[in-house]
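Please decode residue identities from the backbone states below.
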């Protein structure tokens, strides 16, 4: 028999430590307990319905309780729930690897599974480092990152992250990196030449440090956790050209941008870029189960081949690497992409969202609106003319998302930037409702 709300809320406050949450204040707020989902909606313990405006932290693609995904997981469960990939294999992992290699940017032929976005990045970093060791170039051990970059919360991923609020505390534990400025044009002091300066500075750093650089890592096209910061057209292609010209690997972190979020299956495809390593997670299983993958070129893979006694093996892995249930969900998700022509149907939704956001941009407390595909950030400011932000202690973004809950939508802020990233299956009418509720929540929250 299900427990009542009061019991669950009390147990939550007594035992559960929520991620990215200041628990002192959180304990004083009404606890929202989600009990089920259907399509683009979530339902709480009291039966209230909410539009899932952030796709359950950017991972849900085809909606909750999608029948094809439910059936795929149930069917796999009738065979086996888990079997290791260490020295063994199973059909779902093999089939999914083949499908990913077929649809990825050209050259990414090898698939290494892990559990989530952070572990996909950890694998990529270690692959890049050991690639150069195995090639006899151990001096190439540094990584170049972007300011505002976010690649996860394990220590390697934190080392190549660029958000001081998240990462500064752990600096004594991290390996040193190089950092290039991200094109956050709205907050740039020299906005006239902002876009050119950022990419030029990255090209200069690659040229100056290529002898020690193992790889450049970035989120292609759109930086997510930094506040939805889009890169200007041509930026990614120039980064690829610079890394290729100077013999530096390129790691594309497509954990958030992959699987249709930017309007293409992978963000790299907007500029015809093939990275050396690509990290996938979140939407890989349609948002159903934890699964990640690091895709590598054949050249990188071959650098790890050798006789046993040479110890070139990639000594890395996880217990649930390539879990059969998750891989089955991933295969079913890719089949939905194909059957429903999901990518082809995104254009109209992206256009509608752009028009809705353009209208919202006139709001007196909306300083900047940033969008790529169905990824959007709405930066709230105290003074629109001067771009003065709200005081941090006011928690304006948090106020807005609490107001949105009362109106029937789940949103999440990045500071005072309100994020919209709904499931790709959202209808045009549901998208209009989401933007309307967002506007009303901003009116109430600021």
């Amino acid at each position: 028999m299900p427990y009542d709300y009061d019991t669950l809320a009390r147990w939550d406050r007594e035992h559960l430590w929520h991620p990215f949450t200041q628990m002192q204040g959180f304990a004083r707020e009404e606890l929202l307990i989600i009990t089920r989902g259907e399509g683009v909606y979530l339902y709480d313990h009291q039966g209230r319905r909410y539009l899932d405006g952030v796709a359950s932290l950017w991972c849900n693609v085809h909606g909750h309780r999608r029948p094809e995904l439910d059936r795929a997981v149930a069917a796999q469960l009738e065979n086996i729930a888990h079997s290791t990939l260490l020295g063994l294999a199973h059909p779902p992992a093999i089939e999914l690897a083949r499908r990913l290699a077929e649809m990825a940017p050209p050259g990414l032929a090898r698939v290494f599974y892990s559990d989530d976005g952070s572990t996909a990045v950890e694998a990529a970093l270690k692959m890049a480092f050991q690639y150069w060791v195995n090639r006899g170039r151990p001096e190439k051990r540094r990584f170049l990152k972007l300011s505002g970059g976010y690649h996860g919360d394990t220590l390697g991923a934190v080392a190549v992250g660029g958000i001081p609020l998240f990462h500064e505390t752990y600096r004594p534990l991290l390996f040193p990196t190089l950092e290039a400025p991200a094109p956050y044009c709205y907050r740039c002091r020299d906005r006239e030449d902002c876009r050119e300066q950022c990419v030029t500075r990255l090209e200069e750093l690659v040229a100056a440090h290529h002898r020690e650089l193992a790889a450049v890592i970035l989120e292609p096209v759109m930086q997510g956790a930094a506040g939805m910061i889009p890169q200007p057209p041509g930026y990614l292609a120039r980064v690829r050209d610079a890394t290729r010209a100077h013999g530096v690997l390129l790691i594309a972190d497509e954990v958030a941008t992959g699987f249709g979020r930017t309007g293409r299956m992978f963000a790299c495809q907007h500029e015809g870029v093939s990275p050396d390593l690509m990290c996938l997670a979140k939407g890989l299983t349609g948002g159903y189960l934890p699964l990640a993958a690091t895709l590598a070129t054949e050249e990188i893979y071959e650098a790890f081949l050798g006789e046993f006694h040479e110890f070139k093996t990639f000594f890395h892995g996880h217990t649930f690497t390539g879990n059969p249930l998750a891989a089955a969900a991933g295969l079913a998700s890719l089949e939905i992409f194909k059957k429903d022509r999901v990518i082809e149907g995104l254009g109209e939704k992206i256009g509608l969202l752009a028009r809705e956001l353009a209208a919202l941009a006139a709001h007196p407390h909306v300083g900047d609106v940033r969008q790529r595909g169905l990824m959007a950030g709405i930066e709230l400011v105290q003074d629109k003319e001067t771009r003065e932000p709200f005081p941090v202690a006011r928690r304006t973004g948090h106020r807005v998302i609490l107001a949105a809950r009362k109106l029937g939508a789940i949103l999440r802020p990045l500071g005072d930037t309100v994020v919209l990233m709904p499931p790709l299956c959202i209808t045009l009418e549901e998208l209009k409702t989401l933007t309307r509720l967002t506007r009303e929540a901003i009116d109430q929250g600021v």
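Observation: The radius of gyration is 22 Å.
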